[in-house]
């Protein structure tokens, strides 16, 4: 029988979070998103899952329904690396017709920076940023008054380049920058800066948006990197690719979240606290673990630069639509 950790229940009590509302979640079939879905199901929320695998989604639905048989759960299939699939998912969400009180844009990948979508765009940047904005723009009519959008970033955004450089990801590229994951996670913060304001204006309803980051723990997203032989991590670090070695060291030194549920705490706070800060993350060393608190943004992200990135991304989505 599932029961959230004591710390999670304490958080939920502080936020008086036992509601009957509806959340839309991307990346809820594994890792942090699944942990978040379990907690929110336990708290009594209805859920719309957005999953690339129908089989995995139906397993998750059974699990969530056993946690709370009283809630309603829907799922839509969506492969976030494909705009066609995103468009189909948007149509399905509209058909379901539910008002959404919370959108948790959590899905993400770190796979090889050489990997491209069928349109020749970096998969990492497309899945982590462009797809999330496309989905959000497509479901905006479903957002309820006082709804919240929570976007999963990463502490890795501190290694990002300036947002004005991200237009390069919106065209076919021969060579993708090695900072693509960090850049995409900085773009997530920019998206959170703009989405609430833009959609509030467009929809005439109050819509708030927040960014969060989970700290660090080993999940599918970084397992391969974490599991690579130690000598390989050492060799990589000599060539300037220090992440695998850092992941390993962090894990062995215990500078890591104790569970996926703990890694979901910043998102739980941003979703449910009365007045969350714009960016929430863990409070331990290097922001890699520990209870949630306001997190530091390592870039000087101005309203203008976030707005420009929103517009460039919107234009990129429109052009991709035109080319299908
Ligand atoms: N783990 C960490 O230390 C860490 C640190 C900082 C930030 N984050 C962020 O946290 C978020 C969740 O990561 P996680 O650690 O929970 O990783 P995870 O266990 O790999 O979960 C990722 C989720 O995203 C889904 N997903 C991946 N690619 C997709 C695609 N192309 N289309 C649709 N869904 C897709 C996965 O679906 P499947 O179940 O089908 O694979 C899964 O549900 C990511 O945005 C990541 O950047 C994680």
Order of helices and strands: HEHEHEHEHEHEHHHHHEEH
Principal-axes shape call: globular
Question: What composes the largest sheet?
Answer: 8 strands, mixed
Return the CATH architecture of the largest domain: 3-Layer(aba) Sandwich
Give unreliable regions as ranges: none
Quote the CATH topology of the largest domain: Rossmann fold
Q: Taking Cα atoms only, what radius of gyration do you get, to the nearest Å?
A: 19 Å
CATH class of the largest domain: Alpha Beta
Task: Return the structural class.
Answer: alpha/beta
Q: Tell me the CATH superfamily of the largest domain.
A: NAD(P)-binding Rossmann-like Domain
Average the pLDDT over all residues and give the rounded result.
Answer: 92
Distance between the termini: 47 Å
Query: What small molecules are bound in this structure?
Result: NADP nicotinamide-adenine-dinucleotide phosphate
Detailed description of the structure:
With 324 residues, this protein is of the alpha/beta class. The protein has two domains: 6-216 and 261-322, NAD(P)-binding Rossmann-like Domain (Rossmann fold); 218-255, no CATH class. The chain is 46% helix and 14% strand. The protein has helices at residues 6-15, 31-42, 54-67, 83-96, 123-139, 180-203, 220-227, 230-238, 243-252, 260-263, 265-272, 303-322, and strands at 22-26, 46-51, 73-77, 100-105, 143-152, 207-212, 279-282, 292-294. Strands 3-2-1-4-5-6-7-8 form an eight-stranded mixed beta sheet, sandwiched between helices. Strand 1 (22-26), helix 2 and strand 2 form a beta-alpha-beta unit. It is globular. 47% of the residues are buried. The structure holds NADP nicotinamide-adenine-dinucleotide phosphate. NADP nicotinamide-adenine-dinucleotide phosphate binds next to helix 2 and helix 7.
